[in-house]
Amino acid sequence: MQVRVKSIKRPVRFLAALVLLPGLAGCFVSPPGESSSDGGPSGSRLRVALAFPPAENFSPYGADATLLSRLGVTEGLTALDANGAATPALAESWRRENDRTWRFTLREATFQDGTDVTPSAVAAALTRATEAKPVPAALAGVTLDAEADGSRGVRITTGAADPVLPMRLSSPTLAVLSPKAYGKKGAPTPVGTATGPFEMTKVDSGGSATLDRFDDYWGGLAHASGIDARFVKDGTARANAVRTGDVDIAEAIPVAQAATLDKATLKEAGTTRTTSLQLNTRTGPFKDPKVRAAARTAVDSSVIVKGVFEGYADSGAGIYGPAVTWAESKRVKPTGRADAARPDGTRITLATYDNRPELPEVAQVVQQQLEKAGFEVKLQVREYSRLESDALEGKFDAFIGARNSLLDTGDPVGILASDYTCDGGYNLALLCDEKVDRAVRKADGTDGTGERQDAAMAAEAAVLGTDAVVPLAHQRIVLGVSPKVRGVLLDPYERTLVGAGTRR
User: Fold this and answer.
1) Residue 13 has pLDDT above 50, yes or no
2) Exposure string (b/e) for 134-151, b if CB count within 10 Å is 16 or more?
3) CA–CA separation, 459 vs 257, rounded Å?
4) pLDDT by residue (tens digit) across 414-427?
5) Is 279 within 8 Å of 286 (Cβ atoms)?
6) Which has the closest alpha carbon to 481: 20, 24, 16, 22?
């Protein structure tokens, strides 16, 4: 297989592939470098309110990687288009040399510290990602070796055949940083070392971040002169900030606040994010599959969609929702589920986080439904950064979270490997089931788009058959955007928000 894309001297076609997503309103972008109605790329700074503060000091290897990509700071070798296919980013073309080896040709680009993006720098960045602990979710179950090849080439060899490597390299956790980023012990720093249209220049104890336009961006000058980002976990406060004009863009507007925003301010689009109930299969009551089955049968997701999300979601059908357009026609019915036990007062601890304001409400509904079925439920709600490590260590019996099913790689198999296999790096259910691992391995080794999708859906059925996860709702993106702002990137994969063409 070979992919060749003409070198892009101006970023018009590249950005169009990212932002002109079908069916999304409010994301029409003038190509960077072209004059806008307010005089071109010397425009005002953008004020952005984000829901999640950095949980790992802006490490590019974990959840914070998405914060960096959404703010236009970091890039990888590739990106994803509207159909989930790999498109050029720092690599302008690539070809598959054999089952395990790919060669990527780099475009001319500059790091934000003024050094050139070279094959050796890219190879070193990817190598450091493979050595990170824990391993980035995009590399779960994958080994790769990257080496420079000539003045513009990077050759990547994987331990096993990896037909979706170009998609995998689009993950925000595999962003390319300059050698300077890795100069100190610990996680590399993205401050002044990335390649995107905006350079992070200051971080204020996780409460805010300052970004300035990167004037040597390979795609041309960004329209906005910079970004002032604030991390505001309270959803009502984010909505109020848009309403009063204190911020230009606010993500994750609570559905309860959506009706209070002017129609011109509210932006909505489908997303591949699913809210699910994860059950601890390693310790506690849900180690018993019959008790997990009791929890599954107790939950009515239609009540959650109607009462909590107020229609801004669809009932949970599986790990993949309606925004994954091919999933429903290929879905496989789970088999081998245990018969439900009688809870008879079984005590459980249910946890969730409040950065997404709907989640505590979802948890309260689930708590009521479980208690009606006979469970005794203790509910804990915290900020996500204070909850994640405890959840991954199995300190709760059940956990409600929102997860983008195509975030890590754009490949449907990615979330299965990272979230539901024995060695998965984000396995909140602590599931370790040989049948599931076998189905995921088969899917991961399947080539061809349709065949890989079929195998992924068979693996999804294997996961659902364990009752380790109960899908609750497939969410929609709801943002507040000032009517003065143009070019917000409404991305169903939730990797982008502000780009070179975003302006006011």
Assistant:
1) no
2) ebbbbbbbbebebbbeee
3) 37
4) 899 989 999 998 99
5) yes
6) 24
